[in-house]
Amino acid sequence: MNQPRKQQLFMTGVTASVIPVDLDDGKSIWQIIKDNPRVISYAVIANSGSILFGYDILVTGACVALPAFSISYGELYNGQLILPAKWQSLWTAFVQFGIMLGAFSNGFIQDKFGRRVAYILGGVITAIGTVLAYTSADVASLDGRRLAFFFAKLIIGIGMGMLMSACQTYVSEVAPPRLRGALLGFFAFVVGVGQMIAVTLVFTRIAIINTSAFKIPFAVQWGFSGLAIITAFILPESPTYLITKNKRSAAEKAYIRLHGSKADVAAGLNIIQSTIDHERAIAASAETATYADCFKGTNARRTWIIILITTMQHFLGVSLLSNANYFLIMAGMSPTKSLQVSQIGTGLQIACTYISWFTMSSLGRRFLTLASTAGVGIVFVTMGVAGFYQHDTKALTYVGASILLVGSITALGLGSVWPVVANEVSSSRLRAKSSGIGFLVNAFGGGVFTIAVPYLFNADAANLGAKIGFVFAGFCLLGFTLVWFVLPETKSKTYEELDYLFEIKAKTRAFKKPIERFDVDLKE
């Protein structure tokens, strides 16, 4: 016999919404962790695609610091062997454009075939791209080598876009509300691990003056592609996806795999079902969600928040960090020392990301975003000043230190926050497509910035060197202003509560306030 369950009734004026309770309401955070070991384990496994992204995004930037890579792909400029800004921009930008294509197409793929299929496709596509990257150095002509590597990065980007959006969609759907910040934030931690593997491996190859110096780091990506494919067979399908497809029986089995046989399966699935039904009723649409729905009604505000938060990391200089090795070389640092700086910086970012799991839950997403943006902006101003003293050893040392500071401050705040917020503010019905839009915009911003940045600091272009800090300081000021007026606080809010706040068009700063609750008994 079904027992009455407590549900929450939110009221404002003449409207009321019935919202299911959080099943973990009243529990301590440690009790929730103890009760959900399977969910936490699956969330960690789901981030296999993120480690590939972290590895790839840094392995190219690290390999360009290798003398062997410059011999194969570079050219002489004023007696110095360099990689032209044009090709650096194309390689890094088209990884981002590939991510755009992958993330956008993945919205359809996830909604049609499920989250696990996206992992398989992403793994296969990145493996194909890695074949092209590995063999590109064997092409006879210089332009042919460069062009082959260009297409390799584009194909790898498509696969990574699919893997990253699938990962974030999956974790956001299975994570308990109060663990959601840490589990979604694990994305940034795993990206850091991938970067550390890349820079450490490349550092060991710096003295090798043949193509194996960079071919071995490229070949390692096959292992990460295989890991993504294996992940698809380990993870249970998302119960949210199965409920949207009216596969209640399959959703029950997936929920039990995630939470164990002692879990209240009916209550958990009823919360998912009621959230989806409510969003469909508000949208007054059919079961099939479209990208256009993301820009209609209250979803439009959610989507613009996602666009802002996914663009912000580019304002804070992530494109400069991904090119840090070559940037430091152009600023006057040796290749060996530039890789050492990257290695130290990546280690610091991993540690800061770990700290952010706790600060995100206590200080909130909005505060960390504002504080990190302000902090990075100040560092960039001081970097720009140091750029006027390019031949001073102390100034050059500070430029390297400022790169470490920018990476660490970003990891403490925005770098960990943005994937969390991007998935928290999206509606359950549109989450796969909202995630696709988020990664598409993120990749588009990455493409624009990675095309522009090498031209700003490279010796054969604007040659700003460290004075590029002033440019990014301006972007930090713009970003701080936009976040202040647009980004709400989502800490400790359930998806149902966030739905309610968006529906009543709550002001940005009102999101952090507790919602008035009235208890009502409703039979299931």
Read across the widest sheet, the strand sequence of neighbours is 2-1-5
Radius of gyration: 23 Å
Structural class: mainly alpha
User: Care to count the β-strands?
Assistant: 5
Count of alpha/pi helices: 23
Helix content: over 70%
Contiguous uncertain segments of 5+ residues: 1-20, 517-524
SSE order, as H and E? EEHHHHEEHHHHHHHHHHHHHHHHHHHE
> What oligomeric state best describes the polypeptide chains here?
single chain
Outline, from the CA principal axes? globular
Tell me the strand percentage band: under 5%
The main pleated sheet reads as: 3 strands, antiparallel
Average pLDDT rating: 81
Written overview of the protein:
The protein is mainly α and 524 residues long. It has helices at 29-35, 37-46, 48-63, 67-73, 85-113, 115-135, 142-174, 180-203, 212-219, 221-234, 239-244, 248-259, 265-283, 297-315, 318-322, 324-330, 335-362, 365-386, 393-412, 414-424, 431-457, 468-486, 495-503, and strands at residues 5-12, 15-20, 75-77, 80-82, 518-522. The strands form two sheets. It has a three-stranded antiparallel β-sheet. Strand 3 (75-77) and strand 4 form a beta hairpin. Helix 7 (142-174) runs antiparallel to helix 8 (180-203) and helix 18 (365-386) packs antiparallel against helix 19 (393-412). It is globular and about 70 Å long. Mean pLDDT is 81; it is low at 1-20 and 517-524.
